């Protein structure tokens, strides 16, 4: 699996090349989102489902 912490563009040249070689890839914006949801829970005690936020985040980042 290849990961890239860059979140704009969503699919970097690095991830594109890895995917072309048959590798599984992991997007940076998802790492950012899940980390933020965990931090929100730690600070507020309220759970947040990151899956519900993915489409909104992607539209803000231009996907």
If you had to describe this structure to a student in words, what would you say it looks like?
The structure is a single chain. The chain is mainly α and 63 residues long. It has one domain: 3-Layer(aba) Sandwich (Rossmann fold). It has helices at residues 13-20, 28-44, 54-61; strands spanning 2-3, 25-26. A two-stranded parallel sheet has the order 1-2. α1 (13-20) links the parallel β1 (2-3) and β2. The protein is elongated and about 40 Å long. The model has no long low-confidence stretch (mean pLDDT 92).
Set down the secondary structure blueprint:
Layout: E1 2-3, H1 13-20, E2 25-26, H2 28-44, H3 54-61
Parallel strand pairs: 1-2
List the domain count as a whole number: 1
What kind of sheet is the major sheet?
2 strands, parallel
First-residue to last-residue Cα separation: 22 Å
CATH-assigned homologous superfamily: NAD(P)-binding Rossmann-like Domain
Mean pLDDT: 92
* Share of β-strand residues: 5-15%
Number of β-strand runs = 2
Q: Please provide the ordered H/E string of secondary-structure elements.
A: EHEHH
Our count of helices gives 3
How are the strands of the largest sheet arranged?
Answer: 1-2
Helix proportion = 40-55%
CATH class, named Alpha Beta
> What is the second-level CATH architecture?
3-Layer(aba) Sandwich
What is this entry, summarized?
The protein is mostly helical and 63 residues long. It has three helices and two strands.
């Amino acid at each position: 699996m290849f990961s890239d912490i860059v979140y704009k563009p969503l699919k970097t040249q690095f991830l594109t090349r890895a995917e072309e070689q048959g590798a599984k890839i992991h997007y940076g914006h998802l790492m950012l989102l899940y980390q933020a949801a965990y931090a929100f829970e730690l600070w507020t005690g309220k759970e947040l489902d990151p899956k519900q936020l993915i489409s909104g985040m992607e539209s803000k980042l231009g996907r």
